[in-house]
């Protein structure tokens, strides 16, 4: 999920499924609150997981396995 965050207003948008949604919220927010200026530190927050695909799980397992092997080899 994606949220637009404005540190100047200390506010964060509702979560959007697509990054584009949060970015468009940012455009509207800047237009309404900041006269189309870009507040310093504004950002798009990414939270939670974006529905992992089958391949992503395999990749995550592979990375976790490699990390574990590295850890074990350091201990020995
Ligand atoms: Zn703002």
Chart the SSEs and their pairings.
Elements: E1 2-6, E2 11-12, H1 19-33, E3 43-46, H2 54-75
The structure holds zinc ion.
The site of zinc ion (ZN) has 7 residues, from helix 1.
Dominant shape: elongated
Which structural category fits the helices and strands? alpha+beta
Helix content: 40-55%
Largest β-sheet summary: 3 strands, antiparallel
What order do the helices and strands follow?
EEHEH
Query: What is the average per-residue confidence, as pLDDT, rounded to a whole number?
Result: 89
Summed up, the helix count is 2
Q: How many individual domains? A: 1
Question: How are the strands ordered across the major sheet?
Answer: 2-1-3
Indicate the proportion of strand residues. 5-15%
Radius of gyration: 19 Å
Which consecutive residue ranges, at least 5 long each, have pLDDT under 50?
none
Notable characteristics:
elongated; binds zinc ion; 3-stranded antiparallel sheet; alpha+beta; 14% strand; 76 residues
Give a written overview of the molecule.
The protein has 76 residues and is an alpha+beta fold. The protein has one domain. It has two helices and three strands. The chain has helices at 19-33, 54-75; strands at 2-6, 11-12, 43-46. It has a three-stranded antiparallel sheet. The protein starts with a strand and ends with a helix. The mean pLDDT is 89.
């Amino acid at each position: 999920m994606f949220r637009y965050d404005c540190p100047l207003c200390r506010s964060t948008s509702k979560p959007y499924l697509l990054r584009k949604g949060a970015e468009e919220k940012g455009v509207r927010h800047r237009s309404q609150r900041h006269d189309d200026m870009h507040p310093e530190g504004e950002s798009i927050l990414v939270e939670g997981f974006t529905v992992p695909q089958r391949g992503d799980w395999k990749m995550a397992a592979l990375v976790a396995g490699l990390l574990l092997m590295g850890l074990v080899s350091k201990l020995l």
